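Please predict the structure of the following assembly.
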Amino acid sequence: MPVSPPRTIFAASLVLPVSAPPITDGAFLVDRGRIAVVGTLSEVGRDNPGVEVRYFHRHTIIPGAVNTHAHLGFRQGDAPEGGSFSRWVKELVSRLPERDTWLAEAVRNSAREAIETGTTFITDSSPYGDCLPALAESRLAGIVFAEFFPFGFDTAEEAVDSFEETLFTLRKGLLSRVGVEVSVHAPYTVDPESSRLVARRARERGDRLSTHLSESPEEVEFVRGGSGGLESVFGVRSNWGGVGISPVRYAESVDLLWPGTIAAHLATGVSKEDIEVLVRTGAAVAHCPRSNQYLGCGISPVPEMLKRGVRVGMGTDGLWSSPSLNLFQETLFAVRLHGFDGETGLKLATLFGAQALGIEGETGSLEVGKWADFAVVESSPRSEEPEREVLEDAANDGVAATAISGKLVYDHVRT
Ligand SMILES: [Zn+2]
């Protein structure tokens, strides 16, 4: 691994810190992986003589993308058919045994695609965290949410104890910017008692929690009425549905929602009352609109959530429900879907994602003290809305370089 000099100035014809106005001929000084100064190149260069400058002509530097919900363990090209969520998820589960033969390769390829399209922080959800080893080799910063399934145990306590043993083992010897947290897979795969117990213990430890929530019409039907086609996804009868309330209110009733929670999708049947539950509990949302479209799920009411102050980030989901791990493409899709402006779009892809995960003190914008996580985009915006132009260029294969903790982990800049 190449050793980077402890201090480097990165500069470009335009720098979009996201948390501050655009800087023409902008620059920032990176000191041991973190941003030490942000300003114009002439200021930063003048105050730091002798420090190596990497200047990107005809490029714009933006914060790296933060992917708040992904599954790295699926490969490109052989996704189950879309259109129906229940049919799709059943086929996915039936093919899990074959996944073992290509899992590591799929994670490596997914991680590479994420890096080469400007992502610097990723969250993976995988059964019992089985993507951790391959993700840890990728140089991405991120969180692996180890998915908890309670099958095969007599009591909730035994299931949670066993899961936590795996969780604590995964946490040993982690790299500094890779974490392992808890995922309660979904309302139709984890019973209420096990959900409540695993969530309560996670919350007491100060852990984060991820969950799939209110994703599909079938899930809404399962939680409300006990039917819908998701009653036996894993061949185990799920007899706890039919509680007569929405998935979001159900999740609140089993204590799954608090500020450390990131709920993925919220695509189907999300009412104003549900949004108020999110406001009240402080839970955040991962928006995955391309996956929702592929699986016949609805459109998440993200504009209303943002208006009410709910933290929302973007997620690509995995390659079996999404065409790519390119978070900027996912975000451009959302911008067009909801009619957002470019500034909101760029924030959704970066700072809002960091805020949704509670890591905004570490990444998500180009600010002093944060890790130098950024993407270099071949883009020279001319319009009044540079953020929109850069987002479009980043989405359309314009990412020329990506840096994580100040190290260029991908560098295809044409000089
Ligand atoms: Zn997912």
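The chain has 15 helices and 15 strands. Residues 69, 71, 125, 212, 264, 317 surround zinc ion (CB under 6 Å).
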